[in-house]
From TrEMBL:
This is F-box domain-containing protein. SUPFAM superfamilies: F-box domain, MIT domain. InterPro entries: F-box-like_dom_sf, MIT_dom_sf. It comes from Micrurus corallinus (Brazilian coral snake).
Amino acid sequence: GEANLEARELFLKAVEQEQNGALYEAIKFYRLAMQLVPDIEFKITYTRSPEGDSIGKSYIEDNEDDSKIADLLSYFQQLTLQESSIKLCQPELDLSQTHISVLPMELLMYIFRWVVSSDLDLRSLEQLSLVC
């Protein structure tokens, strides 16, 4: 529908901004697109011109780790709880202290958003992941 078209346009603007190096602008457009259609990145098919541009090619080759991180982020975004008994993380050892996994999912998501912040601080996310 109309929301899909608008989300697609916003997402493609975000891709363009990202390719131009305007990361903060790109993030704004990605957020707007995902607010309209949460799984928009999976509904867009990417086409690449045969000649391509050397900057784009080297960017992709040099940033394979970044694409792995992006894939991982997409994976985490797709995780959903199907049953209340399923936990995203569980304590490795039995502790007398309360483990983070007992917190409600909404609270965990709030904590993750606060720690990672709008700057997409992957170092903080990595540190936070050590508690799981």
